[in-house]
Design brief:
This protein is mainly beta. It is 11% helix and 30% strand. The strands form six sheets. A seven-stranded mixed sheet has the order 9-8-7-11-16-13-14, with no helix packed on it. Strands 20-19-22-27-24-25 form a six-stranded mixed sheet. α2 crosses α3 and α3 packs across α6. The protein is globular, with a radius of gyration of 24 Å. It binds copper (II) ion. Copper (II) ion binds next to loops.
Length: 545
């Protein structure tokens, strides 16, 4: 891993003969490529898959250039290592110069059977989260915020059956993070001559991990996103959703080793590489940052909804603590991570806290399906048991770097920074489609509009029609939504210079839209690129005819 580099030139016609030497059916999907539908490689959507011993011939013209990748679209084969980089060189020079380049493939590896991991997620969605807040954290919060606030906060999280440390379904407890197939204990090295401009083609081939990437000591100039030119933007760090690609240019001037540090968004681990004048040098590994916590904005709470003045002033009295039994006190002083779900906070929520009226806090604006109580602002869950939470006032978060990022003074890339280099006429959309990104975390059901793929029908688009697709993420996780066959123009405020993306990472509680020109006939897959979410149902088909 990764699989061999495939490298072509823009304008070529390629023929790829894929022979299946496995004992199970397989497929190869060319991620981000515009190609005839029958060549897209999605079993059950564009072809039946490739049987053991069979050779499937992919044939298509290369209508674009840039950094892409390819991977199996069958079962969990991608998680098992069936992915590789695919680079298409331009026929004409690009609008930036560099002396050398390196391809940097990030991924996550597990020594467990991924299907067993998925089964475990369905049984206990937080099994891999060993970072749950402990009762010791609670007492830290008490000293920082006072008892009332700390108590109310925990109570709200508990009611949601959510944990503010939920950033990844599977964490460093079960994963080894790889950079070009190598673990951090034996990192890959890319070389440079001091003073050279070096292009790094980052590909996030992880099955279910988002990375925060930086190279301490170097600024990175982002020149392409998802293989498409963007106005160069200088950053110190960027977040990569699963399946996204970013091309950056760096200019190391010192005769020393630099660390390519790709920290997972939950901070449970990292992938590591080295940039050095020669092989054998070791870079200093940066300290890992504090585990972040989910915020009110992640619940789809816009600033207005959080206005303190709209909230009753009443808070629970402190009898809650005083009223605890001796065994509860003993449990709290144990200061151990919760051993089983629901999290320690859910446990706290269940404790008696006297006869006071339940407090109304911002979290009450987010209605939990099947939970009693609520407030005047309560919203009904419109999506049934496949969804457990409603974002009440979702807004675009294109100007935000992402939860847990951007608060340490570093300049972090945000989606708003992505401005296409070439203006395109942008006819108004003829059709509006709303896709509610939904989930039931506890049952590990993921889908759109509360429905899994198996419960859904395909979404029709007329050939050449312009559609706006608005994503409303009611869940508290990032979902890298990937459309096959056509680029999405991300409506990030760049007007006629909307960047083209094959994968748009939608933040928790966010509402953001894309425009699509349905210029490719056929049935096209659209799904969350987190393999476990896709498998659990976050998948649809767009039928262009
Ligand atoms: Cu997802």
């Amino acid at each position: 891993m990764p699989a061999p580099l495939l490298r072509f030139r823009h304008g070529q016609n390629v023929e790829l003969r894929v022979t299946n030497r496995l004992t199970e059916r397989t497929s190869i999907h060319w991620h981000g490529l515009l190609l005839p539908n029958a060549m897209d490689g999605v079993p059950g959507v564009t072809f039946k898959g490739i049987d053991p011993g069979e050779t499937f011939v992919y044939k298509f013209p290369l209508r674009q250039y840039g950094t892409y990748w390819y991977h199996s679209h069958s079962g969990m084969q991608e998680q098992l290592g069936l992915y590789g980089p695919l680079i298409i060189d331009p026929a004409e020079p690009e609008p930036f110069a560099y002396a050398r380049e390196h391809i940097v493939v990030l991924s996550d590896w597990t020594f467990s059977d991924p299907m067993r991991l998925l089964a475990k997620l369905k049984k206990q969605s937080d099994f891999s989260n060993l970072q749950q807040r402990t009762l010791g954290d609670f007492f830290d919060d008490v000293s920082a915020q006072g008892l009332k606030r700390a108590w109310a906060d925990r109570r709200e999280w508990g009611k949601m059956r959510m944990d503010p440390t939920d950033f990844a379904d599977i964490t460093g407890a079960n994963f080894t993070y790889l950079l070009n197939g190598r673990p951090a204990t034996a990192p890959w090295t890319g070389t440079f001559q001091p003073g050279e401009r070096v292009r790094l083609r980052f590909i996030n081939s992880a099955a279910t991990t988002h990375f925060d990437v930086r190279i301490p000591g170097l600024k990175m100039t982002v020149v392409q996103a998802d293989g498409q030119h963007v106005k160069p933007v200088e950053v110190e760090e960027f977040r990569m959703g699963a399946a996204e690609t970013y091309d950056v240019i760096v200019e190391p001037t010192e005769e020393r080793a630099y660390a390519i540090f790709a920290e997972t968004t939950d901070r449970s681990g990292f992938a590591l590489g080295t940039l050095a004048p020669r092989a054998g040098l070791t870079a200093q590994i940066p300290a890992r940052r504090k585990r972040p916590l989910r915020t009110m904005a992640d619940m789809g709470m816009a600033a207005t909804a959080m206005n303190e003045s709209t909230m009753p002033k009443k808070a629970p009295d402190e009898g809650g603590m005083a009223g605890m039994s001796a065994s509860e006190h003993a449990a709290m002083s144990g200061n151990k991570p919760a051993a089983s779900p629901p999290s320690d906070m859910a446990g706290m929520a269940g404790m008696s806290h006297g006869a006071s009226t339940p407090p109304v806090s911002p979290a009450d604006h987010v209605r939990m399906a099947g939970m009693p109580g609520g407030s005047m602002t309560e919203m009904k869950n419109q999506f049934g048991p496949g969804n457990s939470m409603m974002a009440m006032s979702p807004v675009s978060r294109a100007h935000e770097p992402g939860t847990g990022l951007g608060d340490d003074g570093r300049r972090v890339l945000v989606y708003r920074d992505l401005i296409a280099l070439d203006a395109r006429p942008l006819p108004a959309p003829e059709r509006e489609i709303i896709m509610n990104v939904t989930g039931n975390m506890e049952r590990f059901i993921w889908g759109f509009d509360g429905k899994k793929f198996s419960e859904s029908a395909s979404i029709p688009l007329r050939l050449r029609e312009r559609a706006r697709i608005t994503f409303i993420n009611h869940t508290m996780m990032e979902h890298p939504l990937h459309l096959h066959g056509m680029f999405m123009e991300l409506e990030n405020g760049a007007d006629g210079l909307a960047p083209l993306k094959h994968t748009v990472t939608v933040k928790p509680g966010e509402k953001i839209s894309v425009l699509v020109t349905a210029d490719a006939p056929g049935d096209w897959a659209f799904h969350c690129h987190l393999a476990y979410h896709m498998d659990a149902g976050m998948f649809r088909v767009f039928s262009v005819a």
